[in-house]
Amino acid sequence: MSMIPYAFSYRRPKSLAEAEAFFAASPESRFLAGGQTLIPTMKMRLAMPPELIDISGLADLKFIRAEAGQIVIGAGVKHADVATAPEVRKAIPALAELVGMIGDPAVRHMGTLGGSIANNDPAADYPGALVGLGATVKTTRAEYAADEFFTGMFSTALADGEIVTSVSFPVPKMAAYAKFPNPASRYAMAGVFVAMFAEGVRVAVTGAGSCVFRVPAMEKALAVSFAPAAVAGISVSPEDLNSDIHASAEYRAHLVGVMAGRAVATALSR
Ligand SMILES: Cc1cc2nc3c(=O)[nH]c(=O)nc-3n(C[C@H](O)[C@H](O)[C@H](O)COP(=O)(O)OP(=O)(O)OC[C@H]3O[C@@H](n4cnc5c(N)ncnc54)[C@H](O)[C@@H]3O)c2cc1C
């Protein structure tokens, strides 16, 4: 196979404003964070941006803060740092556990929160936590409720040149994430995030469909009785789920039910 010739320029902005200015000057360019998706995509020539704007050095994107009732995480924080952060483990252990299940150690030491949610891979874990916890995504231009941020397969509410700066995760009373990983990539074949708040219960499913989605029937049942038995009889329809070389839609639908029960059991066991 002969290589398609390709060259790109590389810029390292010193601030978010400079990153935006670089983008405005080269609208086909791409922001580079952990490079875990973008670089392999470029190697395969599925993306050939003329310029990379490397935002991985921006200190403004690297913080974890415990605030009243929420944990705020900068978009540039790497998965390994979220998984081990004492603030996260204390307030939302389910989030630390979810992030600790992403890929392998190499991926977790490079991949970032912002890169993961901007990419919105249907099998990514983070979208489950954002929608399951009802998080808010902050960008250089706006704020989005997680329910509005993830709009479809590999698509989000982000406009061209808009940079995710942080995500605020509300602290639940109880929560857990159960994932059935693809044994090779560790991506979710089905992952279910369950969270209980004073206002109600949220159930978010990732990996099974084209984009993260909620299961209102499970949310209602768990609000009445937060126990694995409450979701045992509730199934999701395979109609809109993914069917590929890894698993059929029917198998994924079955996994959603099993993972939901496991997540509730884990949440109760803490
Ligand atoms: C082998 C392997 C296994 C993996 N397994 C899993 C898994 O099990 N679960 C899982 O969830 N993920 C998995 N991933 C994905 C990984 O966790 C990364 O989160 C993901 O690759 C993208 O993050 P990144 O920081 O590397 O972004 P990059 O690859 O640098 O960027 C990805 C995209 O996001 C854009 N972008 C980056 N940061 C921002 C920002 N702040 N604002 C706006 N746009 C931005 C970029 O322009 C680019 O389009 C895996 C990846 C690999 C290579």
Summarize the structure.
The chain has 270 residues and is an alpha+beta fold.
Helix/strand/pairing category: alpha+beta
Using the 3D structure, state the CATH architecture of the domain at 174-270: 2-Layer Sandwich
CATH class of the domain at 174-270: Alpha Beta
Order of helices and strands: EHEHEEEHHHHHHEEHEEEEEEEHHH
Give start-end ranges of low-pLDDT stretches. none
Q: Helicity, in percent?
A: 25-40%
Distance between the termini: 53 Å
Mean pLDDT: 97
How is the biggest beta sheet arranged?
Answer: 5 strands, antiparallel
The outline comes out as: globular
Counting DSSP H or I runs of 4 or more residues, the number of helices is: 12
Widest beta sheet: strand line-up:
4-5-10-6-7
The CATH topology of the domain at 174-270 comes to Enolase-like, domain 1
The Rg value, from CA coordinates, equals 19 Å
Per DSSP E runs of 2 or more residues, the count of β-strands stands at 14
Q: Which ions, cofactors or small ligands are bound in this entry?
A: flavin-adenine dinucleotide
CATH superfamily of the domain at 174-270: CO dehydrogenase flavoprotein, C-terminal domain
In percent terms, what proportion of residues is strand? 15-25%
Report on this structure.
By secondary structure, this protein is an alpha+beta fold. Among the domains are: 9-54, Uridine Diphospho-n-acetylenolpyruvylglucosamine Reductase, domain 2 (2-Layer Sandwich), CATH 3.30.43.10; 174-270, CO dehydrogenase flavoprotein, C-terminal domain (Enolase-like, domain 1, 2-Layer Sandwich). The chain is 35% helix and 24% strand. The chain is built from 12 helices and 14 strands. It has helices spanning 16-25, 38-43, 79-84, 86-91, 93-100, 105-108, 113-119, 126-133, 146-149, 216-224, 228-232, 249-269, and strands spanning 9-11, 30-32, 51-54, 64-67, 70-74, 136-139, 143-145, 150-152, 155-156, 164-170, 174-181, 188-197, 200-206, 213-214. A 5-stranded antiparallel sheet has the order 4-5-10-6-7. It has a 4-stranded antiparallel sheet with strand order 11-12-13-14, sandwiched between helices. The longest helix has 21 residues, at 249-269. 43% of the residues are buried. The structure holds flavin-adenine dinucleotide. Flavin-adenine dinucleotide (FAD) binds next to strand 2 and helix 7.
